[in-house]
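Notebook, bench 3.
Goal today: get a predicted structure for DUF5753 domain-containing protein from Lentzea fradiae so we can plan the truncation constructs. The sequence was checked against the plasmid map this morning, with no discrepancies at the termini. Length recorded as 289 residues. Pasting the sequence as submitted so the record is complete.
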Amino acid sequence: MPSDKTYRKSKLGRLLDQLRRDAGRDLEFLARELRKTEAHLSKCLNGTNLLGWADLGLFLDLVEADEDGRRKATEFWEDAKQDSTRVQHPAAYNRVARSYARAEADAAWIRQVEAALIPGMLQVPEYTLARREADHLFLNPKIPASRVVAARQSRQMRLHGDDPLRAHFLIDVAALQRAVGGPAVMYAQLLHLQAVAALPHVTIQVIGEDAGAYAIYGVTILGFDDEDFPDVVYLETRAGGKWVEDEVDVDKFRKSFHEIADEQAFTPEETLEVIRELAENFKKRIPAR
């Protein structure tokens, strides 16, 4: 997914392109009248760029859009305009991470597989800070820890509200056993996992030690409630994230996720028992005051 392409701009772009085709207008004509390059206009129609308000009005005049088309275009444009502000605390992200945060904000559902750490969407602030300390060699020293935590918490709000993100997490048990931040932090973290797992739109499954090897990890699959906007895969690495959009490759990741969930991971009910047991173990290790 290109760094500036978003679901909302794509939705507007598809509508404008359909209006253009219905009117029999070619890109060359429209670009000339709008005083834009064809390349720029093409990007507006594929969801990478956004027409300005005045340009949108002229575009609708040029394609002789009817009242319904104008109403939809106006609504879609106002929605797409939010893209520039949807990512809270943008300075806390690098360019690739911002593109992911935008896509996550627009997604209807998310599936993640993590082998070593608790997924960011599920981290308590103390866990995030402890992980940040471990990452010190890779950090931008100009970004304060408080901003990173605030950015993470703003993303986690997608799991709540009237239209929450439908989420399914597969987490290796090693991530739950690792004392990131110490016993007290992990105890709080595991209690939080139990609370989140109770949400009706969230599924958490632990991959146990006896599960053996599994095909994917460090993987996020995002889906959208629009058949014209396909699922995408985001691979997070220390060198930076990477998007996978090829339909065949995305399908492989999707099938691998389901294989792990259905054949290798504990059921959600078994997972809660594992989390509770590990939480109690960490609670016993918290030093007495």
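The radius of gyration is 22 Å. Residues 7-85 form a domain with the 434 Repressor (Amino-terminal Domain) fold (CATH 1.10.260.40).
Flagging this for group meeting.
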